[in-house]
Amino acid sequence: MKTRPQAARPLVLTGVIIMILGIWGALVPFVGPTFGYGMGGAAAWTWSESHVTLHLLPGLAAIAGAVLLLRGRLAAKYLGAVLAVTGGIWFVIGPTLQPLWASSSMGGTSMGGSALSSALSGLGYHYGTGALIAVFAGYALGSLGASSSRRAPGVSEHDRSDSRLHSETPRVSVDA
Fold it and tell me: How far is CA 45 from the centre of its chain?
């Protein structure tokens, strides 16, 4: 039986969290209204331009990134983390940029309701979801960078520790 190295376990957990957040972000505008968590007054399972561009596409980017983080080789893991960061950032900035491409007749992403309801909808639909995805994907990128720098190709652990020992030894010159 093949076991994962202990250093890879946090990356697996990070990938699972990104996947869950991506699924939530992609599906919330479609299923949220069925349990009273709607935004903009759209009915459940209503397809619109904003649902696709502001929810489904960035959610799918995060999900694809998570799959690459969980199953890919090192280069694919990097691509997965970058894809997930991109999806997370799109959740955050997409609602602000949407007026650039959407016509005014499309309705936009009006949150409506009370101030608390509007704030919770914005966090759950866009900003909180995107920020969490970007944070976890950024952690994955940092983790990948740290683990790959520890595993330089062609250098054994003994050589690496031996070179550290010599690089930390101060050089003293004696002038006679």
Answer: 25
